[in-house]
Amino acid sequence: MNQSISQYIESLLPSRNELFQEMESLAEKERIPIMEQTAIDVMLQFMRMQNPAKILEIGTAIGYSALRMSEALPEAEIVTIEIDPDRAEQARKYIQEAGKADRINILEGDALELLEKVKELGPYDAIFIDAAKGQYLKFFNMYGSMLTTQGCIYSDNVLFRGYVAAETVDQRRFRSLARKMKEFNSCLMEHDEYITTIIPVGDGLAVSKKR
Ligand SMILES: C[S@@+](CC[C@H](N)C(=O)[O-])C[C@H]1O[C@@H](n2cnc3c(N)ncnc32)[C@H](O)[C@@H]1O
């Protein structure tokens, strides 16, 4: 999205409570990549319309998006996976502080290795993929089978700073990730079991609904 339009929309968004502001500051200070405000705003609106009873999030970081989802959908149960122990610990503290420990269950570990545990806690009405960009297709295929019939999968960063649309990507470390994200997007758009829309908001949000 054009930067000035994005800034304009952000300026219209209601201010967040003190805890969220503290988390946003920490994320900025420690360069923890939480979801962009314009994108989380769109995702939360889709979720309010969808009203999922159970949500699976892949990529907790410090618990920011999990708490934003829980605020938007107070009745929803959220299972969220984080591979980094320090971030998972920080997320636990914030979730405790927000009084949401009974609603948000953090699983610490690699989402690629937690299939059985995640399955036991499912099925899920919504899945939010926001972890290692190179693994999106694996996450989607692994956990898509745990989605209820009316379920939706939300995937963040699918436009990956615009690299997916660039003819060439100069930085080597981004080139292969951009290629993987392009493959993921093509796979979503051609999928027999899902119908997907890609929204150019934040870093790109894909919303996939079961056909
Ligand atoms: C973009 S951040 C998540 C931001 C969070 N959803 C938010 O908006 O507040 C991605 C997180 O995914 C975690 N992660 C990366 N690969 C993972 C994996 N295989 N399993 C679980 N977590 C993973 C990273 O440690 C990082 O904290």
Helical percentage: 40-55%
According to CATH, what is the topology?
Answer: Rossmann fold
What is the makeup of the main sheet?
Answer: 7 strands, mixed
Mean pLDDT: 96
> What is the strand arrangement across the widest sheet?
3-2-1-4-5-7-6
Q: Which residues sit in consecutive blocks of at least 5 with pLDDT less than 50?
A: none
Number of strands: 7
CATH superfamily: Vaccinia Virus protein VP39
Structural shape: globular
Report the β-strand fraction as a percent range: 15-25%
Keywords: Magnesium, Metal-binding, Methyltransferase, S-adenosyl-L-methionine, Transferase, tRNA processing
Binding site for S-adenosyl-L-methionine: 35, 65, 82, 110-111, 130
Catalytic activity: 5-hydroxyuridine(34) in tRNA + S-adenosyl-L-methionine = 5-methoxyuridine(34) in tRNA + S-adenosyl-L-homocysteine + H(+)
Enzyme class: transferase
Structure description:
With 211 residues, the protein is of the alpha/beta class. The chain is 44% helix and 21% strand. It has a single domain (3-210), classed as 3-Layer(aba) Sandwich (Rossmann fold), CATH 3.40.50.150. Helix 3 packs parallel to helix 4. The longest helix has 19 residues, at 172-190. The chain starts with a helix and ends with a strand. The model has no long low-confidence stretch (mean pLDDT 96). It binds S-adenosylmethionine. S-adenosylmethionine (SAM) is lined by residues 33-35, 59, 61, 64-65, 81-84, 87, 110-112, 130-132, 135. S-adenosylmethionine (SAM) binds at residues 33-35, 59, 61, 64-65, 81-84, 87, 110-112, 130-132, 135. Keywords: Magnesium, Metal-binding, Methyltransferase, S-adenosyl-L-methionine, Transferase, tRNA processing. Pfam families: Methyltransf_3. Mg(2+) binds at residues 130, 156-157.
